[in-house]
Amino acid sequence: MTDTSLVIDPTASPAFPVGDMANEHEPDPRFTTALVLDVAEVLARHGYPELTSGADLSALRMFLLRFCHIGR
Predict the structure, then answer these.
(1) Which residues, other chains included, contact 18 with Cβ-Cβ below 8 Å and sequence gap of 6+?
(2) Residue 2 pLDDT more than 80?
(3) How far apart are the first and last CA of the chain?
(4) Which one, of 21, 35, 24, lies nearest residue 64 by Cα?
(5) Under a CB-based contact definition with an 8 Å cutoff, are residues 21 and 71 in contact?
(6) Are 64 and 21 a contacting pair, CB within 8 Å?
(7) 3-state helix, strand, coil in the chain (%, to 5)
(8) Which ranges of the chain would DSSP assign to H, the alpha helix?
């Protein structure tokens, strides 16, 4: 079975990063601990280990922050 609901246009401009947050006065309200935990849950559903430490949570948070806002 092939999922055709996600169509990737190879010529489209990237949607991320959404900004570096350097000049923003408020943190991005979308970037929450709940978001990080949701991503961790999806990874676990796909067979990756569940988060077991604060260090794991911090590392995932930083990778997501970089992907979403910095692009590095």
Answers:
(1) 28, 68, 69
(2) no
(3) 34
(4) 35
(5) no
(6) no
(7) 40, 0, 60
(8) 33-45, 54-65
| Spacing of C-alpha 17 from chain mean position | 10
Return d(Cα 72, Cα 64) in angstroms, integer: 10
User: Between these two residues, 55 and 66, which has the higher pLDDT value?
Assistant: 55
Condensed to tens digits (0 to 9), the pLDDT of residues 42-63 reads 999 999 999 999 999 999 999 9
| Residue pointed to by tokens 């911090």 | 58
Which residue has tokens 């601990």? 33
Q: Which residue has the tokens 């935990």?
A: 37
